[in-house]
Amino acid sequence: MSGCILAMATQAQLSTTIGIESDYRYRGVSLSNSEPSPRLTLNYDAPDRWYAGASATRVVIAGSTSTQLLGYAGWVSNAVEGRSFEVGIDGSHFAGVSGYDFAEAYVGLLASRWSARAYYAPSYYGRRVGVGYLELNAHAPVSEQVRVFAHLGALAPLRRGGGDAGQARGDISVGGGYVAGGWDLHLAAVAATRSGPYPAVYSGRRAAVVVGASFSF
Amino acid sequence: MKILIALLVLCVFSVARVDAADGARAPAQELRQLLVLLKLPAPHYRPDGGYAGGYADAAGRAARRGLATALARDNGLALATDWPMPLLGVDCYVMDVPASMQASDMAALLARDPRVSWAQPMNAFRTLGHDDPLFGAQPAAREWHLQEMHGSATGRGIRVAIIDSNVQLDHPDLAGQVIRSATFIGTRADAAESHGTAVAGVVAATADNHVGIAGVAPHARLLALRACHEASAADTLCTTLSLALALHGAIDGGSHIINLSLSGPSDRLIEQLVRAALERGISVVAAADRKIANGGFPASLRGVLAVVDGAAGAAPAGMLAAPGSDVPAPLPVSRWGVVSGASYAAAHVSGLLALMLEAQATSKRGAAPIAAELVVGADGQIDSCASLQRAGAACTCDCAAAARVAASVTPR
User: Fold this and answer.
1) Is the ipTM value over 0.85, yes or no?
2) Are residues B47 and B147 in the same domain?
3) Poorest-pLDDT segment among A11-20, A24-33, B53-62, B380-389
């Protein structure tokens, strides 16, 4: 593997990351049937603060093994007193089960050690129900290479009804990571409440310990 | 009086000299290293950010290191180390320059590469002072009415970053005063050093502990950030990188005041970090060199409080004068001595600002820039009592003079 920043434009940067998670937890629920899930991510940062990227992740959805192809693009402001904001869109396509495809728009407020984002999906997992997701993330360095992090999220349909799937769901995660030489090793405890607008009511384990590793170049 | 006598005895037997002599300082010099700054994209959404969302861009950093390695290889340099500086939006790469090349020439060459934000030589900085030690009691006690001022404020709740050489954390006058210490100069020996220990003591030595001196702001808390090392008894050296990392740490650590008792050549990286501090409302105090028209760098930066030793005469225009001669101060190892120089004048101003910030917070008079509340005479001498009163404290000292609040100097 070789270094991979391309001078496509002045100071534009392209990075590639390959990684694997013991369980692909997306907003508190497993999208990999609690099985390991590899992922490839490309990210492009333009010099004028636009960014875009794509990832491919192995998923198990509706009982079928599939690949989630996720594309995203956004813009992040210059930092003022250490804080910046971003706007962007992302969209997921599930190969072979495209009925679950969905797109989102998001806005975020970012600081050096925390971030907050709000997402809106007009048709979450293809269910034609508008869904909002709020997340708070924080991290702190323990040393130059070790960090701890925490995450809180709340997912809610913007229209009532639909039984448990029409209820809000919260998710939480705490963990730590080690970064060195392009490697990122991390471990997190993840948990979610019962209900929520995952395509159907989620019946898998609501708490898990997730181990992951990735390499960037 | 007992303390004074004890101090004098200690000085006679244990202290010879502290600080480099102004006249003996070597000219500003380049080290055989340069800094290459690569743009650090702002943190943003990533699908693989996962539950860690928002932590430093590890993926991009690995890629940028690859670029830095290629730049070094292609230009005959050796990549030494790297540091992210998210406050400035750059990753900083240190490259060793072979003896056959000039660091400034290589920096100019690399700066033309479109992938590079900027490149610059690694500069050397030196602390300011002179080795003409005289024995005496604290000048601030007389000239600044320190004891009376402490009736109004002691710096409680204020954090002062001392970016300097290694502070003796367990010195009897400093134990418990330092809430965070860090070293940014790599593998140097861990021994306590004179300059940093003395500057820290002038700012915040413990009061009423039956030993040594009272700091100007004895209840302020210190961040002892070691960016310099004592190359000899008369020479304390810092580099662009060590100062930059310490400044980054000071800003990140929530400092209210940053004390820079040092001077060197103009430096883009240091300038940007000082500006980042000022933009966040942090007061930056720097020792100024009288022999340089603008006081030297970083004292010359707009918004930085440039301070000279008031005993040497009126301050040059736009600068401040504070006690800086024959100042009793803590020294390693658990001694006290007399120090002189602009370094210690700057430390006095950092301490005074801590008192003023406490007074301002207590009086709830709002958040006017504290430097604008300094009351300064035509000769640059600070009227400490009037400054403290203007910041919000009740008049406790030199009230007649304080009532005649003179025109204040707005920092350049």
Assistant:
1) no
2) no
3) B53-62
Does the pLDDT at position A191 exceed 70? yes
Mean pLDDT (chain B) is 81
d(CA B50, CA B265): 44
Examine the fold and report which residue of B122, B150, B179 is the final residue of a domain before the chain moves on. B122
Asked whether B239 and B225 are in contact (CB, 8 A), the reply is: no
Mean predicted lDDT score pLDDT of chain A: 83
The confidence score (pLDDT) of residue B15 equals 35
Q: Does A122 touch chain B (CB under 8 A)?
A: no
Instruction: Write down the pLDDT at residue B123.
Output: 84
Residues of B in contact with A138 (CB under 8 A): 54
Judge: B63–A79 Cβ closer than 8 Å, yes or no.
Answer: no
Nearest Cα neighbor of B102 from B81, B89, B120 is B120
- CA B34, CA B96: separation in Å to the nearest integer? 7
Asked if A118 reaches chain B (Cβ–Cβ under 8 Å), the answer is: no
**Chain B residue set in contact with A, beta carbons under 8 Å:** 38-39, 41-56, 58-67, 69-70, 86-87, 89, 114-115, 117, 252, 279-280
B238 and B107 part of one domain: no
The three-class DSSP label of residue B109 is helix
How far is residue B259's CA from residue B376's CA, in Å, rounded to a whole number? 19
Q: Could you tell me if B217 and B342 lie in one domain?
A: yes
B349 pLDDT exceeds 80? yes
Instruction: Give which of B38, B55, B87 to mutate to test A binding, by max A Cβ within 10 Å.
Output: B55
Rg (C-alpha) for chain A, rounded Å, is 17
- Decide if A54 contacts A25 (C-beta within 8 A): no
